[in-house]
Amino acid sequence: MDFSNSNPAKDDPIDAPAPRLPASTPEIEPGAPTDLDLMHAIQKEDPEALSLLYDRYNGILKALILRVIHNEAEADDLLQEIFMEIWNQAKNFSAQKGKPLGWMVTLARRRAIDGLRKKQATEQQPDAWVHNATEEEITFSDTRILVRRVINTLPPAQQEAINLAFFRGMSQREIAAKTNTPLGTVKTRLELGLKKIYDGLKELRDEL
Known about the structure:
This protein is mainly alpha-helical. 70% of the residues lie in helices and 0% in strands. Helix 9 (172-179) crosses helix 10. It is globular, with a radius of gyration of 18 Å.
């Protein structure tokens, strides 16, 4: 499905049917956890599982977002929001209703379309979103601000790992190479950083 066609009647990403699952998905190495294993681990608040899921599918989900948003920087921001939503909404995933990738694709498409609608409304009428935003959109925007506040409280090494992984789209191996840090150390920093973000969000929400 190509959203680059100039005919809005046929190729409007908002009205288009839900995308099919990618024909080619990353190969899982022997002994590596399955997608279902990772989702169950995320439901148990294991940040390492989220990091592994990100490494496995950030490329596929970003490609999906770009077919709706058509803006690299905005797609990067939205991708990070989507993975935070995966973390927060993992409890709602059920293997009986489908596979993890299908659930994530649906979530990503919905979030991308929401982002496109918000952008279009803002361009047409700068203050329109303020008046028309749904409670869900406002809540998610607040979460994004809270996440940044918590990240700023992390130790510098953990901040760097989180920023490179979730705002620069780097894999754990790429971060290790860029920072000249052992892969195991990178994994630990990401795991500790994500755990602190989760705990920090809980504390901040309790204060609000």
